Amino acid sequence: MKLYHNQRQYSRSKVSIAATLTPQGGEPYGVQVADLSMGGMFIHSDKVLEPGTECQISMLLGHFKHELPIIADAVVVRVFKDGIALKFKSIQLESIASMQHVIVDHADDPDQVELEFSSHGGWIFSPE
Asked: What pTM was computed for the model?
């Protein structure tokens, strides 16, 4: 069994959000977002993707017919028995405020998350 060292730079917020994952060159399919941070997310998925696979994730928040889509481009960084860890590459500009709101609302330490946002200029991810 391989153990992973926690290399996270950002606080994780436990969530339960339905989403659609579209691997590059593949068909979209449903997944469940289990945790979310400024740098990425962990999703429960029945399908296995190889590390390095680029994809797009789309989450719908809100009520029927009033959904607020959060759309991000990501890359698979780790694969586990019960899901996939994704690192954000970019997030659509109109999705950033909604993403931040979800992360803060579900954070164990909202003040720490707010500090992380402010120390990174409000961006959810750090462009490379």
From this structure: 0.78
